[in-house]
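thought: fold this chain, then report.
action: predict
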Amino acid sequence: MSIRLINIGFGNIVSANRIISIVSPESAPIKRLVQEARDRGALIDATYGRRTRAVIMTDSDHVILSAVQPETVAQRIVSKEEVTDEGQGKA
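observation:
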């Protein structure tokens, strides 16, 4: 298993292998989840003061805030997988 790194904006990188979900921050349950993560010290704010557009949840119960749209982050993960698959070759 190789480590795949994904840019989540402003030069911030996360391991794609650790991401469980990428969601929009608009709903009340997600806002509560972000506040709970802040209270327990598991919130990583990678927005550089910009508006939060994506909330990324990891398998280590960390919550990461990103200023990049969820669709953009997901597309970066998918395109990274396609590049990895092409480099493997088929027998």
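thought: worth noting. The beta strands are 5-9, 12-15, 19-23, 43-46, 54-58, 63-66.
final: tokens above.
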